[in-house]
Amino acid sequence: LWHCDNMMITENEVTGMRDGIYLEFIDESTVINNYTHHNVRYGLHFMFSNHDAYLDNTFESNGAGVAVMFSKWIRMERNRFVQNWGTASYGLLLKEIYDGEVLNNTFEQNTLGIFVDGSSRVNYMNNTFTQNGWAIKVSGGCYKNNFTTNNFVGNSFDISYNSKMNDNTFKGNFWSS
User: Fold this and answer.
1) CB of 43 within 8 A of CB of 65?
2) Handedness of CA 74, 20, 32, 3 (dihedral sign)
3) What is the torsional sign of CA 102, 161, 44, 51?
4) d(Cα 89, Cα 20) in Å, to the nearest integer?
5) Mean pLDDT, to the nearest integer, of 100-106?
6) Is 86 left (phi over 0), alpha (psi -120 to 50) or beta?
């Protein structure tokens, strides 16, 4: 979809594509209960899209998982990011995202659960990271993010930062290591 508002994308199975679901300039829309797997690149890829919700989807065994770029007021809740594995792969990439919520998601057996780059004021709450290479990598320019009551279980590495500046908060998380 390109340049649409108030869209509902629901109950699809998408496999074998370059990008399973691709959205650009999509506002006030919902992607719910889809299964995207074994796509060449992303299970879901969206850019320049605001006030959107991604709920109850499964993104499994895609080349690079899900990419969310240059968007505001995004809510990702109760999604499963499973076995997105490879040298340049992750469950979820957040690039230049502001004022979002990543809630109650499962990140299991991904090379990298979440890669956060230049994203600020995002709440990460009640997510479970299990047996990932890295659970979360935070790159430069990420400020005022809250990581609250997440579970980090059996990951090779839990958190990585590449900057000395850190005003992000970590509260009430469970660390199995």
Assistant:
1) yes
2) positive
3) positive
4) 15
5) 98
6) left
Amino acid at 147: F
pLDDT at 162: 84
The string over 120-142, giving b where at least 16 C-beta atoms fall within 10 Å of a residue's C-beta and e elsewhere, is bebbbbbbbbbebbbbbbbbeeb
Answer yes or no: is pLDDT of 163 > 80.
Answer: no
Strand order through the sheet with 8-10 = 8-10, 30-32, 53-55, 75-77, 101-103, 123-125, 146-148, 169-171
Q: In this predicted structure, what is the pLDDT of residue 176?
A: 95
What's the CA angle centered on 109, arms 106 and 110, to 5 degrees? 90
Q: Which tens digit of pLDDT belongs to each residue from 37-95?
A: 999 999 999 999 999 999 999 999 999 999 999 999 999 999 999 999 988 899 999 99
The residue with tokens 């469970």 is 174
Q: What residue type is assigned to position 122 of the chain?
A: V
Beta bridge partners of 79: none
Task: Look at residue 170 and tell me whether its pLDDT is greater than 80.
Answer: yes
Q: Which residues contact 3 (CB under 8 A, 6 or more apart)?
A: 24, 25, 26
- The Cα-based distances of 76 to 72, 126, 158, 163, 166 in angstroms read 12, 12, 21, 26, 24
d(CA 34, CA 43): 10
